[in-house]
Each structure stands twice: as C-alpha cells, then as structure tokens.
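Record Excitatory amino acid transporter, 425 aa.
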Amino acid sequence: MKLHNQIFLAMALGALAGWLTSEGSQVFGVSLLAVYDTVGRLFINGLQMIVVPLITSAIISSLTGLGNGRDLGRLGGKTIAYYMSTTFVAIIIGLVISNLLTPGIIDGEPAGDRLGLAADTHEVLARVEGRGAGDFAGIILQLLPSNLLQAAVQGQLLGLIVFSLLFGYFLRNVEGSPGQALRDAIEGLYQTMVRITLFIIRFAPIGVFALIAATVTRTGFDAIEPLAWFFACVLLALAVHAFIVLPLAICVLGRRSPTWHLRAMTPAMLTAFSTASSAATLPLTMECVEKRSRVSKRIATFVLPLGSTVNMDGTALYECAAVLFIAQAYGLDLSLGMQALVVITALLTSIGVASIPAASLVAITLILGMVGLPAEAIGLILVTDRVLDMCRTAVNIWSDSVGAVLIARSEGEEAVLSQPPDHTV
Ligand code: ASP
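=>
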C-alpha cells in the first residue's frame, strides 16, 4: 500500500480508536491514552531529533552550491516576496470571512457569555507567557541569538537559520582543501540526514495512528460543538487559501497541475495535520518536494527550511480570525485602523512564531493586548485550538511547498511536476 494511503488508513483507525477510548480506559492495567501518547511522542521526537542537523546541513549545502552572490540575492528576494505576499493574502481572507460571517456574534448578541472560558485558561496563559518572544523585540532578537546552541536546544530555529545562511555564504569563499573538505563533509551530513528521514518516515502510519487516537480521546468530537461556527469559519478561510488561492498560483504562475502537487505532498500534509508541527514535518516536506514534485535540491533546501519557520499562512490567518472572533464575542467593535493593526501584527508575529503545536497562542495573546482585550480572553478558543492547529499546520507546509514549486519554475526548472508524482516516499 502506498505511504499516503497507509497514513489515511492510520488516521481513520486512530479516530475510531480514540472514539472508543475514554481518558480512563485501561488494558491489563495500562492506560491506553498513555500508550497513544508515548507512541505519538516517539514519532514526533524522532522527527524533531533530525530537524537541527537537517536544517543546518540543508541550508549550508544549498548555499555553497548556489554559485555567485547574485544567484543568492535573486533567490532570497523571490523567496521573501512569496512568503510575504501569500501570508498577507491569507490574513486578508481570514479578515474578510470573520467580518462577513461574524462568528463571535450569535443572535445579534456578543457570544462571550454563552461560550465561557475554558477551564485550563490560566494554566495555558502561564505556559504561553513563559515562552518569550511575546513582543516584537523578542522576535527580532531571535534572529541573532547570543548562544547558538541554546537557541537550537530551545527550538528557536530562526536564529539557527540565520547562522546557517551566514555560514553557507562565507564557506563559499574559503578556498583550497580546507573549504572543499568542509563543504564535502556538510554535503555528507545532509545526505545522511536524508537517509535517517526516510527511515523515520516508515513509522509515520504508526505515529499518526497514535497521535490522532490521543487527540480524539482527549478532545472528543463533542467539544467542538459550542464553537462550531468559529470552527467552520476558520476551516472555510483555510480552505479558500489552500484550495483556491495557492492552486491558482501553481496554475497561473507555475503553469503546472496543482492536483499533482497536492498528491505529491499528501504524506507531508497528513503528517503536519497529525503532529501540528511544521518543524517536525520538515524532513517529510523536503522529501516530498524533492522526490515527488521534482523540485531541485538547490531550491528545496533553500526555500523549505526557511519557510517552515518564516512562512506560516495558516497560522497568520488563524491569528487574525481568532482575534476578530474574540473581539466580537466581547462586544468590541474593532475600527478599520485597529483591524489594519491586527493584520500587520499577524503578519509579523507569524514569522517569529515557533513551528510547534499551539505556538500561535503566544502571538494571539500579544495581539489581544494591543487591541485592548485581556489575555484571559484566549480561554474562549482553547477547546478547538488543537484541531484547528492541525489544520493550520497542514496549510503552513502546503504553502511552503507551493513556494518551492513556484520559485523552481521561475528559475526555469522543467522537471518540476512534469509527470504525476511517483511513489518513492
Ligand atoms: N503549529 C503551527 C506550526 O507548527 C504553529 C501554530 O500555528 O501554532 O506550524
């Protein structure tokens, strides 16, 4: 069976298992939920274990192979332009849908009182506030961490990426055998990481089964009900961006089939959905884009690691939709100026948000403070956060992969999606 079918099946079985399991279910005295959690965690750990060496070796080897500085400037310019413009479009879609469908207003009344705050609001807030990068200075400071290893340990990939870009850029100029030896060693490291990735991917169906089973056991399907309208609005906005805007870009700008690309990316998108972490999914994203959509290693290794932390369309859209929903639910009418502020802040914070589960909550509390709402208001949306996190993460990595395709096409790569994806992954 092909990998994406295996993962689909695992998701369905995981949802069924989660539905049949309650938080107290035990088999031979062992908690089933604990088993799901451990297996799921093992899979995520396996993927996260390779992220730091993969990102660094991929970016450095991509840069050393890029040729002259002008190539790098052109590629960097296109990449940033793509990231900024698609994120901006995503936020506007979130803004328009939230204003048109007003999910925070029920029967003409602000829905705040009916919904109530989630029970664990204070606990979540305490976690979120301790995570740092809660302001703009924090985000900018992440770009140049004083201690590289500490940034890597704390999963602040932005600093690591900037360092790798600098390293790769200057390694190109080191002449003679020291330079060549180091370039070869890093290329060897990258190829080893790719092989480890392929090995871990084989366990994706088991990991995905456990992650979905744990989420369904914990959240259940009923939990979504009170927030159904908000939930539906976010899903609609994400769907418009993922299934209309981005495919149109592949058709019009890339002149390739978005369906083929979607098929190529299915394993990565399902993994993003199950893990709710773009960083953990990165190894798979790179594999699918290179092997199945046939984007060159040169472009994939440059665009994707950067995209996994900088380009978060789904996250930015969600931040905007969540803040507007909370404002509506609190009966606060946000002026046009305020909404523009929300858009800009969502754009900037989505760059600094870590690519891990629930990371946008940090940014949302920041924006809530800016528009004059209490941080506790985030308690309104906690119940649905995990499931929507799964969806927005899939959109995040879908947008990264579309970026890789468009940039490769603009660089004249003919092989990209020139035939239906094969099934090497
Ligand atoms: N979980 C998202 C990601 O890793 C970030 C977020 O929106 O919370 O892409």
